[in-house]
Specification:
174 residues, mainly alpha, Fumarate Reductase Cytochrome B subunit, 6 helices, 0% strand, binds protoporphyrin IX containing FE
């Protein structure tokens, strides 16, 4: 179940691969929203963006707590860049949906992810200081996260192919 210094355990692996699939879905919805607006596929995918984003926020909090509780007992990062990259992914996965939720609340519109009435909404003007940060940063940080993830995958492949590098894939897969 738990991690050890050689490999990630079942819980970390389940969170890593489960979230990877959900994040892929999240970016499909974002890409559709940018490239094929007002098509049936886009309305279907975009309809899942907010609840899926909230689910990812809940999962990343659980994942971060699990990572912290295993900190002394998981495979050591192979270099400083890997350590920084993993930390960056955690931070972006916390900040991106948090800013969006703050904007959602500040917009005064009701929000019922998965049918759960989270924000009731309110009458009157939107609250500027709550909506401005996400208006400015949400999508840019989202695309930055996508780039970081592409870099992450490229590094794993690079380290697997080169004989003089440590193959890290078995730590997380197989
Ligand atoms: C990890 C979670 C999330 C990621 C990676 C993510 C990513 C993105 C990306 C890349 C875009 C740009 C799409 C475009 O330009 O058309 C976007 C837009 C948007 N997202 Fe998210 N999102 C997440 C969570 C959320 C949540 C939780 C909400 C709302 C509660 C939300 C609401 C929106 C809205 C309203 C837009 C369109 C306006 C804008 O570009 O800021 N997102 N998201
Ligand atoms: C949305 C996609 C992904 C995200 C957000 C992500 C994120 C992360 C993070 C944060 C870690 C650090 C360990 C942890 O706390 O879980 C990690 C480790 C790892 N990931 Fe990913 N990952 C993604 C996709 C992938 C893919 C597609 C591969 C395979 C090519 C992969 C292979 C690995 C490996 C091998 C490790 C262990 C690296 C090491 O210990 O040095 N990841 N990933």
């Amino acid at each position: 179940m738990r991690d050890n210094t050689e490999r990630y355990g079942q819980v970390s692996r389940f969170l890593h691969w489960g979230m990877a699939l959900l994040i892929l879905w999240q970016f499909l919805s974002a890409i559709a929203h940018t490239l094929i607006k007002d098509t049936p596929l886009e309305s279907f995918l975009w309809g899942t963006h907010k609840p899926m984003g909230l689910l990812l926020l809940v999962l990343v909090v659980i994942r971060a707590l699990w990572a912290l509780s295993n900190l002394a007992n998981r495979p050591a990062a192979i270099n400083k860049l890997a350590k920084l990259g993993h930390l960056g992914i955690y931070l972006l996965l916390l900040i991106i949906p948090s800013l969006a939720l703050l904007r959602q609340y500040g917009s005064g519109k009701p929000f019922e992810p998965f049918g759960v009435p989270l924000f009731a909404g309110f009458e009157g003007e939107e609250i500027n200081w709550m909506t401005a940060p996400a208006n400015l940063l949400h999508s840019w940080l989202g695309w930055l996260l996508l780039l970081t993830i592409i870099g992450h995958i490229a590094f794993v492949i690079h380290h697997r192919r080169r004989a003089d590098k440590t193959d890290v894939l078995p730590r997380m897969w197989g």
